[in-house]
Structures are given as structure tokens and as C-alpha cells.
Amino acid sequence: MATTTIPGAKQPFPRTDWSLVQDAADPAGPAFRDSMDQLATIYWRPIFGYLCRRWGKTVDEAKDLTQTFFLSLVQKGFRLHCSGDRGRFRSYVIASLDNLVRLDHRNATTLKRGRGALHFPLQHEEASVLPSAESPEKMFQIEWAGAVLQQSLRDLERECLGDEKEVAFRAFFIREIHPPGGIRPSYQALAERLGVSVDDVRNYLHRIRNRFRELVWNRVRQTVGSDEDAEAELRDLFKAVRP
After folding, report:
1. Which among 22, 88, 192, 214 is placed 20 to 30 Å from 183, CA to CA?
2. Global pTM?
3. Residue 92 confidence (pLDDT)
4. Distance (Å, whole) CA 59 – CA 115
């Protein structure tokens, strides 16, 4: 199997080549359900927000159209009209949403929630859209980036707990993700808090930062057509969440 290496990472990992998108396009495949769940977890809120901001949909209308979008992915005979050589799934989603709304305006019909075999993460059903000076496209990118990072952080936490690296994860979380009072503690302060040496903290953070970037890159790589697109997507992601 071909592999892709990440700068700073010690181990290669399998090339994915749009695998998440391809699996979600095959209702008969063994990975279909898991792939659809992952796509829904990452894209539900950005799609919902985009429909409200870009097209002025009410909360209920946006919920219905968001559900319609995902249900359309599993209609009989449906296949994603996109492939690994056509760029990024994120761009496909926005174009599809615009087409979906225009079609909905023409037909005045939608697939209703509950019609179909799948239901998507209910925690997103309570999503609301806060006012923003950013464009709908920019907010879609910000919310997409946040969802990818959140899922990657959960991957990292599960991995660290499974390998008994809880202290390393705590060091990373406290300094990089949720520093007390919004101020990152020094290595010395972090070492005292965790009961380890400063060198331990430095080594923990070096390894965990690399692994976190690897996990983010791996998730991004599943929805783009090339390594070059993945690197560009990764740059967009971190740019979107940078203060």
C-alpha cells in the first residue's frame, strides 16, 4: 500500500485518496455507515449555518435542507459526481448546496426528515446561527475547520489514553488547547502542575504536536484528491482558526 509521510512525523500512514467520500457514495459497502456518520459530524453545522447565512433560511428550513443534503447522498443509484482529481470535497459541498436551494425553489419540495434509513447527529439539531461580519463562505470554512480539529483532538485523546500517554495529552491540552485564563503556562509551570520534568514536558509537546498535525492531515486527506490539495486544505484550516 502506498504511504504518505508528514513533515516531523516519525511514522508514515496509509494514503487515503478520498476514501471517506468514496465509502459514503456506496450504500452497499461495509464502511458506508461509519463514513456517513463522519461526514455528518464534520459538515452538519457548517452546512446548516451556510444555508441560513447565504440563503436566508429559517432554522427549520435550514434543518430540513441539511437533512435533505445528507439523505440525497444515500438515495438509490446515487453516486457522488466528483472524484479525487476534481479537488476538494468542501468545494463540492458548497456548490451542491447552492444547487439544492435553487432546485428547492423551483420544485417547492424537499426530502423530509425521517424519510430514509439514516439519521444524523442529533446534537447538531440545536445549532443556532450567531451574527457575523464574515461572509457565509468564510463562516462555512471556520465552522468546518473547527469540526475537523475537534474530531482530530478526540482521535488524539483516544489514542493517548489507549497507549497510556494521558500525561502527554494533558500537557498538550493545557498548553495548546485550553490554557487556564487564556494564557499558556510556561514549561516550568506545566512541569510542576503535572509532576514531571521540564524535559519531559518539552518532549511530550514535541511528539503530541506532530501527532496531532498528522491526525488532522489524515482527516483532511480523506476528502481531497491529492497531497497538494491536502496541504492547501491544511493551510486553509489553520488560517481559518487563527486569531
Report:
1. 214
2. 0.77
3. 83
4. 19
